[in-house]
Every structure is written in C-alpha cells, then in structure tokens.
Amino acid sequence: MKYKVLLVDDEETMLKYLSRFLIKRGFDITTATNGSEALEKIKQQDFITVLLDVLMPGIDGIETLREIKKIKPMTEVIMLTGHASVQVAIKGMKLGAFDYLMKPFDRDELIEKLRLACEKRMFNEKGIDAVNIPEMMSNNSTQDNKK
C-alpha cells in the first residue's frame, strides 16, 4: 500500500529532493510550497501524513498545523525545522504534531517516522489505539500459549 503524503516546504530544491527520495521508497507524494497551498490541497484530498516545514513565508508551519488539525484532525503531521528550535517543536507537539525532525535530518530516521505516522493513522481509522498495539500483541501471544 502506498501511503499518501503531502510535503510542504518553501524551498523548491528540498521539495524536489524529498519527492524523488520518498517516491523511490514507495510513498505517494504531493507537494505544496506554502501553508495556504497546503491547506487548499488538504481540503480537496485526504493525506495520511503531512511533512511540514516550520519556517515559511505567509502562514508558518505552526499555524498551518493548527489549521490542518481543524480541517482533518486525523491527519498525522511531522514538523521539519532547519532552525534548531526546541520550543517550536514542543509547541507543534502540543498542537497535535506526530513528531518533528531537525534539518539536516537522517534519511533513515525520516522514513521510520513517516512509516510510524502513517501506520498510526491507519490504526486510528480502524479504531485501534496504536499506543496499545505492543500490549495487544503480547496479550495475544500469552493467550495463544494458554491454548
């Protein structure tokens, strides 16, 4: 299954690089160059996860996150920041961001966080609390052993 991801960054080179990189890894990618464009696309389509730059002209990443959560609260958002600001990352997490990455980021870490965010969304859509998945798995194996 290809996870549908929206990439939002005002740096076009970053968008092109990330798009190619993530498409090669099996993600279905759409891009936006600013918060307003991202919000329009979110109103029109359903994205599993949004990879969102924090510092952008116009509507910044924090305000875009706030609006995404109003429009489509189930959408998972990973914040990207090139301006190592722990306060911004914490604010994003308080507003409902799934996680954050500092630029420059490790590509493997990006893929792992994207997959986890996508899986969490899919579990939530099925009414399964993703936090309890490991607990459910251990309970099932305990019950299987008792049979």
Describe what this molecule looks like in 3D.
- The protein has about 150 residues and is of the alpha/beta class.
- It has one domain (about 5-145): Rossmann fold (3-Layer(aba) Sandwich), CATH 3.40.50.
- Helix content is about 50%, strand content about 15%.
- The protein has helices spanning about 10-25, 35-45, 60-70, 85-95, 105-125, 135-145; strands at about 5-10, 30, 50-55, 75-80, 100.
- Helix 2 (about 35-45) runs parallel beside helix 3 (about 60-70).
- It is globular, with a radius of gyration of 16 Å.
Quick structural summary:
The protein has 147 residues and is of the alpha/beta class. Helix content is 52%, strand content 17%.
Number of domains: 1
Main beta-sheet strand count, sense and barrel state? 5 strands, parallel
Please give the share of residues in helix: 40-55%
Write out the CATH superfamily name: Response regulator
Placed side by side, the strands forming the largest sheet appear as: 2-1-3-4-5
Report the oligomer.
single chain
Supply Rg: 16 Å
Distinct helical segment count = 6
